[in-house]
Design a protein that fits this description.
181 residues; mainly alpha
Amino acid sequence: MKKSFFGICFFILLFADSLPVSAVNEKGTGFFDLSDTTEIQNQLRKGDYYLTINKDSSIRHYEMAYILAEKLFDQFSDSADAQSELGIQMKYLFGKSLLKKGVAYKSAGDFSKAIKWMRESQQLLDDFRILESNPLTQMGLAELSNCYLNLALIFEILESYKVSEEKILLSLKYVKSVSDP
């Protein structure tokens, strides 16, 4: 009996670090899993790794990041905490996952899906223009610039040069705002 009790305690202590940690946001409006933000970033990194090797794997990892980011973003977007640092971080991760998904479809040659996901990312990241300047909003603006640049590349491939030029100019505008806050 003693051995099994100590065995169970040892097992719990051994694997306690791998168990997800739940937390309540400041207002108590919902639960989120702190490991989800790390998992989103891990899935984005895996998608980046596979982007040049295996487009389908890249899309799959970006899709997983998108699903997790959407779940967290939805918890904060309708709450009073949407403008908190954590809410802004969720918006950033969701916008970035949308953008990465679009980049993967661009690499796979599916330009209609790429444009769809990048425009959704653009709409979400566009909110970073009006937020108080801090490192997180600067990262959001850098992703917005990246989004416009990728859209410009797609429109250039599609021989829509006027739209491509507009997107490049917008990309340069946000690159400048990030470098000169």
